[in-house]
Amino acid sequence: MTPYDDYPPELDQAWNTGEAKTAEYTDQWGAVRSVFLPVRDESGRVIMAIGVDYTIGKVKAVIRKSFIVFGGIIVFIILFTIIIAYRLRRSIVSPITQIITEVTAIAENADLTSRTTVSTADEVGLLAGTFNSFMEKSQNIMKQIAEISQRLA
After folding, report:
1. Helix, strand, coil share (%) of the chain residues, nearest 5
2. DSSP 3-state assignment of 14?
3. How far apart, in whole angstroms, are the C-alpha atoms of residue 44 and residue 113?
């Protein structure tokens, strides 16, 4: 083997500290990114350091691909969130808004014959059905009061 005289200082640092080091540099083989890993014996003493070189072009290609994949995942998550928000709005907020509008109209007109038109099979539909039952019972009570009032008059 021939001695490797043209090496970066990170190789010495990996040897001396026992920690992995990375470096980007240009040498006779071009622009590279290197990783230097110390190798230890059974007692924990560093006995050699191994270096792996990648051309900067390959490293940038991997980074670029990672950004594209990451960007695609972010776009997917955003679209998925928008779709879920739209569906929630359509299934929850719109019926509640409709109930509020109808109940407000009933209250303003004091019309005990009106009912809400929401008929979904969920909690909002249950709320609308319960309100309609309340309105029917209130209407019946008012009819009974009117009948009693006519009999007494």
Report:
1. 60, 20, 20
2. helix
3. 88
pLDDT given for residue 4 in this prediction: 66
Element holding 140 (H helix, E strand): helix 123-152
CA 105 to chain CA mean position, Å: 39
- Please answer whether residues 107 and 138 qualify as being in contact, where contact means their C-beta atoms are separated by less than 8 angstroms: no
Compute, in degrees rounded to 10, the torsion defined by CA atoms 15, 21, 25, 29. Answer: 70
Q: What's the pTM? A: 0.51
Please say whether the beta carbons of 16 and 42 come within 8 A. Answer: no
- What is the mean pLDDT of each successive set of 10 residues along the chain, which is 153 residues long? 74 91 84 91 92 87 95 98 91 87 89 84 87 90 90 80
